[in-house]
Design a protein that fits this description.
The structure is a single chain. This protein is α/β, with parallel strands linked by helices. The protein has a single domain, classed as TIM Barrel (Alpha-Beta Barrel). 42% of the residues lie in helices and 17% in strands. The chain has nine helices and eight strands. Strands 1-2-3-4-5-6-7-8 form an eight-stranded parallel beta barrel, surrounded by eight helices. Helix 2 runs parallel beside helix 3 and helix 2 runs parallel beside helix 9. The longest helix is centred in the middle third of the chain and has 18 residues. The protein starts with a helix and ends with a helix. The mean pLDDT is 94.
C-alpha cells in the first residue's frame, strides 16, 4: 500500500489556506494518447492535480487511459470513479466517493464493497470523500445515473448537516458537485455554510467556466476548484490558465 502522501498534501494546502485547482478528464471524451496531451496542457496551465473518471464509460480502456495520463505529467493523478470498474493501479490515489446526498444504497456502500479488494490489491491510496450533488438547473449525468435527487440549492443548511455528518463518520473530504454541464454552480451561500461547520477540505465542481466564478467559490470557502468541460470548449486552455492564476493570487 502506498503511503498517504496525496491526502497529506491536500490537507496541508487546505490548512495553509492555499487554494488548489484540479482538472477532470473523462476517458469517454479522449483517446489515451489525446488524454495524455490534454493532461500535459492542463499541467502547464497550472492544474495542481488531475481527476480521471466519469458517470458512464463507453470504452474499456480505463487502465490504459490512466497509464497514459500518468506517464505524461508530474502532478498527482487521482481516480474519480463512477463505479467499481473504474480502477487503475497507475493512479496516485482514489476519491472513495460515497454519494451521501442521495439514499441509493448502491452509491452509499455497494460499489465500495465491490471495489475494496481491488483497491487493496492494486495499492491505491483511498481518500474517503463525501460526494454531494447540488441542484444546478438541469438533470446532470451523475444525477440520472445514480438515481438520486440533488440537494436543493436554496437550502444550504441541509447541505451543511450532510457535510457535518460525513465528517463525524470519518470522511476526509467534502465534494460539492453541481454536475457536468450544470447551468448554475454551487451557490456561494452553501459553500460558506458547509466550510464553516466542517474542519476538512471542501471541493467544489460543476458549472465553473471562468476565473471570476472560480474566485467567488474560493472566497466563499472552497479549498479546491474542479473544472472539466472547459477542456472541450473553445479557448478552454486559456480559461484554465486564468482560473489557475486567479485562485492562486487570492
Amino acid at each position: 500500500m502506498k503511503s498517504n502522501t496525496v491526502f497529506e498534501a491536500i490537507r496541508k494546502k487546505a490548512s495553509a489556506k492555499a487554494p488548489a485547482y484540479w482538472v477532470l478528464l473523462d476517458p469517454d471524451d479522449f483517446s489515451p494518447k489525446d488524454g495524455a496531451a490534454i493532461a500535459k496542457a492542463a499541467q502547464t496551465a497550472g492544474a495542481d492535480a488531475l481527476l480521471v473518471g466519469g458517470s458512464l464509460l463507453h470504452t474499456n480502456r480505463f487502465d490504459a487511459f490512466v497509464a497514459s495520463v500518468k506517464k505524461g505529467v508530474k502532478i498527482p493523478v487521482i481516480l474519480f470513479p463512477g463505479d467499481a470498474t473504474q480502477l487503475s493501479g497507475h493512479a496516485d490515489a482514489l476519491l472513495y466517493l460515497s454519494l451521501i446526498s442521495g439514499r441509493n444504497p448502491v452509491n452509499l456502500i455497494s460499489e465500495h464493497v465491490k471495489a475494496a479488494p481491488t483497491i487493496k490489491q492494486l495499492g491505491i491510496e483511498p481518500i474517503s470523500t463525501a460526494y454531494m450533488l447540488v441542484e444546478s438547473g438541469t438533470v446532470t449525468s451523475v444525477e440520472f445515473m445514480s438515481n438520486t435527487r440533488p440537494l436543493p440549492r436554496n437550502k444550504p443548511a441541509i447541505a451543511a448537516a450532510h457535510a457535518l455528518a460525513a465528517q463525524y463518520m470519518g470522511m476526509k473530504l467534502i465534494y460539492l458537485e453541481a454536475g457536468s454541464g450544470a447551468l448554475h454552480p454551487v451557490p456561494d451561500e452553501m459553500i460558506s455554510l458547509v466550510s464553516s461547520v466542517v474542519d476538512i477540505p471542501v471541493i467544489v465542481g460543476g458549472g465553473i467556466r471562468d476565473a471570476r466564478t472560480a474566485k467567488e467559490k474560493i472566497r466563499a470557502g472552497a479549498d479546491i476548484i474542479v473544472t472539466g468541460n472547459l477542456l472541450q470548449a473553445k479557448g478552454g486552455i486559456a480559461a484554465m490558465k486564468e482560473i489557475a492564476a486567479a485562485i492562486k493570487n487570492i
